[in-house]
Structure formats: C-alpha cells, structure tokens
Design a protein that fits this description.
Helix 9 crosses helix 13 (about 375-390), helix 9 packs antiparallel against helix 14 and helix 10 packs across helix 13 (about 375-390). The strands form five sheets. The protein has a seven-stranded mixed β-sheet, with helices on both faces. A seven-stranded antiparallel β-sheet has the order 15-12-13-14-11-10-16, with helices on one face. Strands 19-20-21-22 form a four-stranded antiparallel β-sheet, with helices on one face. By secondary structure, it is α+β, with helices and mostly antiparallel strands. It is flat, with a radius of gyration of 30 Å.
Length: about 675
Amino acid sequence: MKVCVTEKPSVARDIASILGANTRRDGYFEGNGYYVTWTFGHLCTLKEPADYTDNWKRWSLGSLPMIPPRFGIKLIDDEGYKKQFHVIETLISQADEVINCGDAGQEGELIQRWVYQKAQCKIPVKRLWISSLTDESIREGFSQLKPADDFNNLYFAGLSRAIGDWMLGMNATRLYTLKYAQSRNVLSIGRVQTPTLALIVNRQREIENFVPEDYWEIKTLYREVTFNSTKGRYKNVDEANAVIESIKSHPLTVTKVDKKNGKEAPPRLFDLTSLQVECNKKFSFTADDTLKYIQSLYEKKVTTYPRVDTTYLSEDIYPKVPGILQALKPYAALTAPLLNKKLPKSKKVFDNSKVTDHHAIIPTNVDPSRAALTREEKLVYNLVAKRFIAAFYPDCEFATTTVMAMVNTTEFKATGKVILSEGWRALYNKDNDQNKKDDDNGLMPQFVVGESGPHKPSLLKKCTQPPKPYTEGSLLRAMESAGKTVDDEELREAMKENGIGRPSTRAAIIETLFKRRYIRKERKSLSATLAGVQLIDTIKEELLKSAKLTGLWENKLRKIERGEFSAQQFLEELKAMVGEVVLNVLRDNDSGSIIVEQDKPKKPKSPAGEKKTRAPRIKSIEEITCPVCGKGHMVKGKTAYGCSEYRNGCKTVFPFTEYPADLTPAKLRQALKKKTKQ
C-alpha cells in the first residue's frame, strides 16, 4: 500500500477520487492500493522553552540566551490534531511508500517532514509537486512523482526559518520584557514583525515631523495648451512674480517640436504580493483576506497555486494557454480575438530562468462559471483572469508630442499623449482616464517651430505634502523591497531576494501586529499605536528593527533553498547575533521608554507559539481623563503616567518622581487636579 498525505481534507478527497481510493474510513480514504489521509496544516511545532529544561519555565534574564543544543518538535496540544496524527502514524507503519502531497511550497514541505519525523517514518518517500488542483494536473503529477530528496534544500530553508524565528522571538521577547517592561507588559518581538512595525513607525514620524513649505509654479496658456516653466518649483514668491512680469508682455515662441511613437506592454501577471496590493487598492481587501480568497480559488480548481513570488510562466505552459482561454466562458468576448491564431510568446511572460518552484498566478482550464464562487472570490478571479488575457493582447500604442517654447528668457514645455491603438488597454478602458497625468494635454494642435503669439501666464501657489501613511498594499510593497519605494517592475523583481518575510507570510505578520495592538487602521491608512511607537523607541538594536538587515537574512534563506548557502551557517550566524543582542541589552543602563498598552487587548502570544507566560499586563487607568487635552485617559507606564492620546499629539507626562507609581486612582486624580490648578 501507498499512503498519500495531503494538507487538507478537501485536497485528500480530490486526490482519493482520482486514485480510486473511494472507501471512506475514519481519518482517511482507502482503495486501489492507496491510503489517502491529511493534516490540518501544522500538526507539529517546535518545542517551547519549558519543554527543554525547567530552568526555562520561569522568565529570567539569567537564563538568556536560550539556545537548545538540538531543536525538537512536538504535537500541537489539540485532541483533534493528536487523533489525526495517530491515523497518519498508523497508516505509515502499514504502508510500503509515502507520497508527500502537501502544498508545493516551503511551509508545505515543513508541515509534512515534521509529521513524518514524529511518526518515525522509515519507508521511502516521494513528492507530488503540482501548481494547480485540477484533475488533469493531479494525474500528470502522479505520473511524474519526484524523489523526496530533491526537496531537501526546501525543507532546510523552512526549518532554518522556523528555528531562526524561535531563537530571535523567544529570546528577544523575554529579554525586552524583563529589562524594560517594569509592569510586565509582554513586549513581543519577531524577526519580521519588528522591522515591519518599524517601517510604520518611521513613516508616521516622517509625517508628524513634516514641515510644509509653500512653492509656486508658473504656467501659461497658448492655443488652449498648457505650458509649464521648465524650472519647476519657485520657492520665493517675489522671484516668481518677477518672472511673471518679465514674460507677460512678450510673445511665446515655439523652439522645438518632438513627436515620438511608443508602446506599452501589458502588465505583468500576478504574484501573491501584487495581487494583494491590487485587491487592497481596488476593493480595500486586507492582505489576509486576499490570501484566503485566492487560496479558496486554488482549492476550487479555478486558479493555480497562489503563494508565489514570480510574475512569469515557464515555457511548458505556453501550449496549454489556448485551452485555458477557451475555458474562460464568462470572458468569451475578450478571448475571442485570441483564439484560432498564434499567440505571442513574450519573454516578459514566459521565462524559465525566472520560475523556480511555481509560476505566476493564472486561471486553470476549469470553467469558473461551474464553480460556486463567493462575491469576493469573483472579484479576485476577475483580476487574475483579465490580467492573464491581457498578457496575450497587443501592446498599447501611443504618440507623445513634446513642444518646447521660450517667452523672453524663460523656457516652457508642453506634452500631450494620444493613444493610437488601445491594444490590451481595451480590457481596462474604464481605467484609462485615471492614468492620465496632470500635465498631459492629450491631443494637441499642430505646432510649427518658429511660430509665435500671445499667451496667458498664471502663477499657482502650492504646498509640499507629507509622505502618505502606509496602506496594507503599500506596506506589502515596502516589505517586498525591504523598505524602499519601488514602482518599476524590473527593479521590483530584482529586489525580491532581499524582501522581508515571504509572500505567504506577510499577511500573517500584518495581522499579528493588529492582534498585538501595535498598529491600527483608520479607513485604509495604517498607523502605529502608542505601544507600537514606544516598543520601537525602546529597541536600540538596529539588527532587530532594520528592514534592510532582515532582508539580508531573507536572502540567505532563499540561497539555502537553492543550495547556495549552508543552513548550519545561517543558524550559527543567528546564534551569534542573538547572543550579541542579549549582551548589549543587559549592558544598557538606560531605563528605557514608557511602555503602555491601549484598549485592554488580549494577552498576546509569543512569536514562536509559546502559549504560557507569567508576565502580567499593564492596565490603563481609564477613569482618569487627561487633565491637559481632555480627550485621552491616563495610562501607567514604566517611569511615568502618560496620556493615551500620545499618538495624536498630547505630550502629557507625569513622572513617578513627582507622582508615585503606587498611588490609588483616587489619589492620582486628586494630585493631577492640584497640579493643573497651579
């Protein structure tokens, strides 16, 4: 018998049907020489500190750093999980071969390997590696099963990531909580979580510290076309007015006319991050929601594997494209021009060198109208389908006209862009006007060099704008590029190696920051809470909060996956770094920041899954309104009482040197009233 282990019951049901394992048992299917069973995602996890030694049960600085000589795994403490593991363990003991049918990715590989290790699997293991769950794909995958050893590096990368997160999360969380949170508010610190929070805090600081500056722009209207001064911004109004005076009585003379035709290629296919960004922009979906919707579409067989970081297809997909286009019945009007003709094979779409484990997210050859899709799933599917169809449409062709002119000694410029052939943009014609720039005159009249005539100059006062707060979409982009703002698709592809987190984990990181009340959302904008700001202020170790440095660690994990870097070396470097962080913090004599929590959040879990802690939370003194701003309430921190409206500008602080930390709320209220009357 062969035992197939999938990641979910629904996938097991599909595979069992194809293999002919049609007899349903308790926890598995049986038939035709196969057992088909499943996990529920992770059944196993890394052991917690207390599982290694009694010395690590109690939180103490003297026990840090905690680095086990050998990391171990254990079953997650859940009766349903334990029962299902026993089923898998029993089947493996009776089988001749295991077929790993877990999700074809790093996390899927880790889930399966830990289960086999815990079950003491001694029989041969093969790997099913597929990019969609269609019947055709599953059959093809079973005809091409691969040796499990082919994916050892993928497992080593996943294991290194898990152990690295454990080492840094467990040690740094205990270290900073014990050192700086006198009132025992748990300060949760993680390898990716903390740099992500730092991105939000730093952007918030940029906005808060931004000082707006007035500037002026000079424009002039000639033949109903707007010309802009090539100098751009004038910072001095007197200088700008002087220019206006110098040009208003002189004619405008055209000095150069340049016409160029250009082409715009279709947008790249979706990887997970770009899909999450687009869904956040168009539908305000959270990153986590988008991941759930596209995962559901994958499990309903209508899209391919979603947890990918490439926007390319492998060349073996090209012959399958006509069949996929024909299956897109709801899009027949859009696919009709592509059928019965040779489709283009652009290097911007098909490139084997840019595809590793999986290709970009595309539709499958399953008709979506036959799948029971929710409203949200239909919206996401529509984006994926249109992007795929657009990839085989012609380029958008346009003509750009640039006109240079002089008025006295001041140079002006006007531009106009006209679409000659919509090409792929015909699929998105409602969005075309939104892409028009403010200085684009569109279709312009015919200009001739040397022509001259009267014009109408104008002076526009404007003001510099602060950076925009992060949305979930722009934060995902920042995580992908280690904090750098990147719009260019080619550069974005090159920077993915140094991004923080993985496409499959970034949504969970953002959700974790919400759950731990380090960030909040106002409409679409993300901002850090007082607790989030003060946590970043307390962490002086740049290693713990630098997106750039974390991106370098991610780069090494990707190299481990490719067999270009040693997992052992990565972990040794991380051990040394954790030891250095512990020493530096223990040597720090600074009393640190006031660490508070707002809104009475639930006690956060430690980043690597540690469930129990003896560290109690600080409590807000909600019944005492801030005597200065009158909006917030007083919260008790490490060295002082402060206002909960700190993030919104209230700087009220009453240090414990004047107002003892052990005051009752009534006595504190009385003391504050007395102080404000003075």
